[in-house]
Specification:
The protein is α+β, with helices and mostly antiparallel strands. 25% of the residues lie in helices and 35% in strands.
Length: 257
């Protein structure tokens, strides 16, 4: 059985950032995640300058071999209606690929890792936490997102009261012809609200990749909403018409605070 001072369940940005801070304080930290990194993560994928500052990320270093598109404006509107462009005089965000960003943070944190490890059982033994009879820790951190097994095991009352946004999205590579046909500018992500204001869709270009998705407070027929959104973007000439209509969409959920 492995022993540590702090066991962090979840190796995404929250877990790896927590591990990075604790390791800087010289604590013995072990991060557990059911995935093997790099892994695909459904997310529009952009970060703000305060994130870079808080996590002390060297932008020049991060850009080496990774997508990092400066965002200086947003194209915002309503599906089927007019839109406006909000311009800034500086980068207010950076478009990143979560597969690259999450791996970077996890490798940088310098904690011990146990990947490809799904947490199933958590119990307390005196002052020690026992996880799956494999790990012993004085403290456990729940950083597993909406479906975090630690939060589920301990009964997260606040999460049960929170509203959940159900979303589907995809990040796909563009070939040479598709890149020429795509009207989404890397510096200007496009966000469109649903007509009933129950959700929004996004479209973001990151170099050779295009990220499209939609999230709603009401999960009913979410796939249909995403398909209609993609078809509308095609009719408006924003994305290539030969982007597969039957996209291999992946779902995720997050709390609305």
């Amino acid at each position: 059985m492995q022993t540590c001072e702090v066991l962090i369940v979840g190796g995404g940005p929250a877990g790896s950032s927590c591990a990075w801070a604790l390791r800087r304080a010289r604590l013995d930290v072990l991060v557990v995640d059911k995935a093997v990194f790099p892994r695909d993560k459904v997310c529009a994928g952009w970060i703000t300058p305060p994130v870079l500052e808080m996590l002390k990320i060297d932008l020049d270093d991060y850009r080496r071999g990774r997508s990092c598109e400066p965002i200086t404006a947003f194209h915002i509107g309503r599906m089927g209606g007019p839109a406006v462009e909000v311009d800034y005089d500086r980068p207010v965000s950076y478009g990143i690929r979560r597969s690259e960003f999450d791996r970077y943070l996890l490798e940088r944190c310098r904690a011990r890792l146990s990947l490809d490890t799904a947490v199933r059982n958590i119990r307390r033994s005196g002052a020690i936490w026992i996880v799956d009879d494999q790990f012993r820790a004085s403290m456990v951190v729940a950083a597993g997102g909406h479906f975090c097994p630690v939060a589920r095991a301990l009964g997260n009352a606040a999460a049960r009261r929170a509203q959940v946004v159900a979303a589907q999205g995809i990040e796909l590579p563009l070939d040479t012809r598709q890149k020429a046909a795509c009207r989404i500018e890397p510096a200007v992500p496009e966000i469109y609200f649903c007509n009933d204001l129950m959700g929004y869709g996004w479209c973001l270009r990151k170099g050779d990749f295009l990220n499209i998705g939609l999230g709603r407070k009401n999960p009913y027929q979410i796939s249909k909403h995403v398909t209609c959104f993609c078809d509308w973007l095609k009719r408006r000439g924003r994305i290539p018409t030969d982007v597969p209509r039957t996209l291999k969409l992946r779902g995720h959920a997050y709390y609305l605070y």
